[in-house]
Amino acid sequence: MRILRKSSWSPYAAGAAIGALEILSMLIAKRPLGITTAFEETAALAAGKIAPKLMNVAEYEREQGKRPKIDWKEGVVAGVVLGSMLSARLSGDTNPPAVPETWRREVGPSRAVRYGAAAAGGALMMFGARMAKGCTSGHGISGTMQLSASSWIFTPIIFATGAFASRILFGRKR
Hints:
By secondary structure, the protein is mostly helical. It has a domain at 1-96. It contains eight helices and no strands.
């Protein structure tokens, strides 16, 4: 299939593929797609093993209503990583720039600053996702497919906020 060798897909094809994957997840696993819970549960398990006196698993269980465990969600995480690697290899896009041109022009050429900003942004997104008990893609994909009113309100707001933040950070396209 030639589409697998492209460095980018049509957003319509990608959206249809994600929608089909969500439907399969609901049919097979009886659960919507989700990824941030895997990180939370893995961290809780690791903390319980590394520092059991600091990690009160009973409190976690009471708060979450379940015991942390490794299950299919960690498979989704592995699938994202392995799928990204496979996609890069098939498309030949295995050597992207460490500092993209837009970042270099607007912020500077430092890899350390770029990686630090990416790590800080990822950590903030994960913190917000767990605080809200769901992430942006969980609302946008799983929530809207389940016709959740909060997801239908939230999803356009996140897109508008992203566009606004990009405009502030990077200005208009030149």
